[in-house]
Structures are given as structure tokens and as C-alpha cells.
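Re: the multi-chain job from yesterday

Posting the exact lines I submitted so nobody has to dig through the queue logs.
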Amino acid sequence: MSNDSVEARIPSGGKKIVLAGNPNVGKSVFFNALTRLYVDVSNYPGTTLDMACGRFGSDVVIDTPGVYGFSSLNKEEVIARDIILEADVVVNIVDAVHLERDLFLTLQLIDMGMPMVVALNMVDDAAREGLKVRSYLLEKLLGVPVVPTVAVSGRGIEELKRKIYFARPGHVESFTREKLSQIHPPAGRREALLILEGDPVISKRSGMRPGTERDALYRVRRERVNQIAARVINNTGRGTSFATRLGRWMLLPATGFPLLVLVLWGIYEIVGVFFAQFVIDHTLGLMEGHYEPAVRSLIDVFILPRSVAGTILTGRFGLLTLTVTYMFGLLLPLVLGIFLVVSVLEDSGYLPRIATLVDRVLIGFGLNGQAIIPLILGFGCVTMSLITTRMLGTQRERRIATFLLVLGIPCSAQTAIVTAVLVGMDPAYAFLYLLFICSMLVIAGTFLGRFLPGWTSPLLIELPPLRLPRPKNVLKKTWFKSWNFVREAFPIFAGGMLLLSVLEVSGLLDGIRSFLIPVTVNWLHLPPEMADVFIMGFIRKEFGAAFILNVPMLALQKFVALVTLTLTVPCIASTMIVFKERGWWEGLLIWFSVYGLAFFAGGVLTRLMEAFNAAGFLRLLALSTVVVFFLAAALIVFRLLMPDKKAV
Amino acid sequence: MTLDQVRKGQVVRITGMPNEMFRVHAIRFGISEGSVVICRQIVPAGPVVVSWNKQEIAIGRSLARIISVEPY
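And the result, C-alpha cells for all chains:
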């Protein structure tokens, strides 16, 4: 969303109320409460990457990405800075538990002369940690209204709404005031501070030389924050809580990896067993047993089943039959399950700890631990997580993470279908599938980490306190994500089905099938109908994967088709995001190398599997897989325990 | 002495942060040269977790290696 569209939506005389604060302090909760709209809320830094805006009475509320300060350090800061510079009122949200960190941004806003209100959020968490914050004293020291709140439960929101109209500029410390009086940029006081702090973009915009006072101003500000914090915080001091201890266990390899495995196993039980088997059995049965016959008998009254319209509506790829059945009987329940898990993970604060734990492993792929967050979120939705690669430090890291996401991370809908297909087969295949996809990721990652030019930024991540996710937020988030999925996917899915029907009716489908025979039949040894799967798979991978259930094939062929499909680019939406984030040239390069790699690997796998199968060694292969897994795990643990001085 | 050589539970004062990017980030998080932090955890061969007040950050090994500290 550009600034123009915000401009257009402000009623005349309306004010721009901007929410600003550090990452993960609850800005989005305030946004939801003030505007009654919904944006994502999570317990890790960087959920809001773009701005969101909504109405509050006759005014407009704008949410900004969480930042620790305003300058041009990264994309989020640039976005946040530009919105703040245009604001009429700033609502600065600070985390009562991390006052010393958050007040730094507050003082920067005060130094800019912004009319503002401070929401002192999470006072309940602070109390639990044994901290009491004297909000009246904070108000006096800062010179702006301060409202204690617990946003997630709605406490203090009403008072905040009233206080927004009492926003005023706060007290500026004398050293900063003196410096500010020395320069007078045309744009005004707000820009003056940023120029003094050496912001290159703002300086250029005002036609002035960037200042050199950043270190001095920051030091003065930091000292003042420490003084204020020391005066307003009353530490009643309590011992380390269970959450703190659990947080520590999550970071130690000896306890952290078993915990991670336990969590992943739990996720499998919920998604792979409960949703992918139990729930799906019922929903699919309902759709196929009751919904489809009902629709068919209804449509047959008006349209001949063999006619063109009949084929499109109720034929093999019927818009009213198969499309609806797959969407609501198969995909929706699965996606609900996975988003439920992802929401719990996001809210708990576990993700940054996983990042810290696996940092050492990811360095081998030219990434730092933080990259595990987009990679894990990719299991929810690859398209969405491609956008979160923005939070990685350098272009090189974003490039590698994008490639890995597109190549080998199956998204929620796809994971679920893959699980559903694998469950019906020899367990040996499940192991082989895991081994193959993992090794493709490891090979690609190691290769890219080794040969891609550039450097990798070191890990620097904040560990938020562990929180028990609130069921209300988790359910709300799951619901919104799933609803968005249906809204976005259904038209594309229906369009894809329509395309296939039209191709079938016009006889073009046979043409494409025979055109692809060298790939499907000769190279991958699959039935010619598998062309449909790859066409559908290009539109959305899970739709393609769902077809694998339908085409009669040998187990081995199903397996090869699954692996090849997993390795291809996820869907049209993610293809578009890759182009948008990485540019056309790099996007095309990624797209073609991933497709090439997928089909090449598929063909190699086919020959390998056939050789083993002919010799009756399939089980042996699976057994050796398990052994290889254990060896790899042992190697990783060993590498983690052996300090490697040379590693960068 | 550098931050990667600190033992778990040790309290140290930060004396030097040569990385400009880190210095800017760190001062916002609340640490600057002269700050006193506690080493909470060391992931073997991995990041060092330091905290002050209720704030915790994980610092990658390669970064920890260039941050100089002294026992406090």
C-alpha cells in the first residue's frame, strides 16, 4: 500500500494516528482493537512488514512495522520512518517488561517533537516478572500521557482511546535541544533530528549534509533512558520462573534438540494423524457420499451429463463436483490443522529459540539461525514466508532462503496431501521421501552457501519471553489464515479445473500429454495422465498432489511423482512473489533451475528405485535410510559439541 | 578477552564493539560500550545468549568473537 492510498482514505479534517513501537510489543493488537479490522498478531519480531490502515471514528489508524529506532538501517525502518514523518499523532506502544529497551524509541520520537501518547503494554506480564512500573512518574518524566494497558484482554483500551486526543510533545533533554537549534531544514523539526543522526535519505531529501552526531545523541539518549527506567521501575524481585527455565532448556543442544523432535512429533500427530486421516475420512466421505450425488442429480435435470457444459460442471474435473469436494473436503480441513499449529508456534515465542539452537547448522548453508523462521513458516504457506525472507540481513541470505523455500519446503496443503498419499503406502516410502527431500535441501544449501558470492550476517536476535498462547488469539488467527487461504485459492483452483476441463473437451489435453511423454513416460516412467498433475501442480502444487490419489499407479510411481512434484515451484502465487522480491532475472533463474533440478532428480530417483526394487531391496533401502539419518544426527550433535574456531 | 570466551553465568562489562551495524542495534537494545551483561547461556560452538534486566538476546558466534569484554 502506498502513501497515496492512505491519503485518499482519510476523511477531510481526519487525523493520521500512527502506531509505533519495538517489534513484538503488541502494536497489531492495538490496531485490531482500535479499527476492529484484523491483522496478524504473533510472538516474534517482524510480523508486520508492511503498513496496514483502518478507520477510527473520523480519523485513520496506521500500523507500522516494529523497529528499535528510526533511520535507514533496513526496509522496515524506512517504511516506519516515512509513515511517522507524516503522522499527526503517534501512539507509542512500549512493553512494560522491557522498558529500558523500548524507551529508546520513545525518546527518539519525543526528540523528533511528535505529539504522542504512550501505551504501557503488558503490565500483567511485568507484574508476573516481579516488576511494578510507576506510570504516573513515567508520565511526568516523559511529558506525554501514559496509559497502562493489557491489550490482549482489552484492559486500558478505552482510556487510551480518550487519551489519544490529549497527545502532546514531550520533554527534550537539553543537549539534544541545543543540537536541534543549530540546524533548520526546510521540512522542519522532525527531519532535523534524523539529519543530525546522519540519516542519508532524509538529508538528501532536504538538500543537507548528513550529521555526524549519531553516537553522541544515542549515548545521551541511552543514559536518559537508563535514568528514567531506574526511577520508574520497582523491582520486587522473584526467582526465575518455569518459563525462564524452559526457555534455557530450549537453547541447549542436549535438551533443545530432543524438545524440538518432541514438538515436531506432536505436530505430526495433530496434522498427519488427526487431521490428515481422521478428519479427512469424514469430510471426504461426506462430500463424495452426499454432496456430489445430490449436485449431479440436480444438474442432470437441466443439462446432459455428456454435453460440454455437463463435462465442465460435473465431469472429471467438475467445477461443482470435484473442485468443491477437494477444496472443502480435503484442503480446508488440512489447512486448518496446519495453521492451528503454526499459530501456536508463532504465539509461544519458541521460533527465535529454535533460530538460536540451529544457528550453527544453518551457517553451513550460508544462512544464520534466523533463516529457520521463514523455513518453518514455509510449512504453513511458502508464498507468505517468501515475504518474510525480507527480515534476513543480506541479499545473499535472502537469495539462499528463497531458493530453499521454493525447492524443498512443502506448504501446509501439500504436506497434508503428501502425508495422506504416503499413509496409504509401505512405511519404507515415508522414510525415503524424508531422506530424499532433506538431502536435496542439504545439497542445495551447502552448494549455495559455498559458491554464492557475498557475506552472511551474524545472528543477532531478541529472545522474547515464552508465553502460553491465548486460545482466543490462536483460534482467531487460524480462522483468518484459513479463510484467506480459501478466498485466495478457490478462484485459482476453480480456474485451473476449468482450464483442464476445456483442454479435455477440446482434445488439447491429449496433445499436451503426448507432448510431455518424453518427460512423464520416458524419463520418469509415469503414466501419460501425470501431465495433468504437473499442469495442475504448476497452478497450485497441492492440487496436483491431490490428483496423485486418483491416477492408478504403482506405489513406486506414486512415490516418484510425489518427490518430483514436491521439488517443483509451489504455485503461481509464490512464483509471482519470487519475481516481485527477487526481480525478473533472478526470478527466472530460480524458477528454471528449480524445475530443471526437480525433473532431473526425479529421473535419477526413478532409476535408483527401480534398481533396488527389482532386486527386492526396497526395505533394505529404507533401513539404510534410517541408519543414514542417525549417522547424520550424530554428526550434527558431534559438530555442535566440538567448538570449531575456524567456522565463520 | 572476547565475548565468545565468557563462561556461563559470568558477569562482564562490554569494552569494545568494532562492528558499526551491531553498535547501532545494540545501543537500541540497551547495551553500549561500558554496559554490564550476564552470560546466560552458550550454545556449544553456537550463539552466546546474554541478558541484562529482563532483556535477552542471542549473539552469533562470529559476532561474539569480535566483541571485547572484561570481567566485572
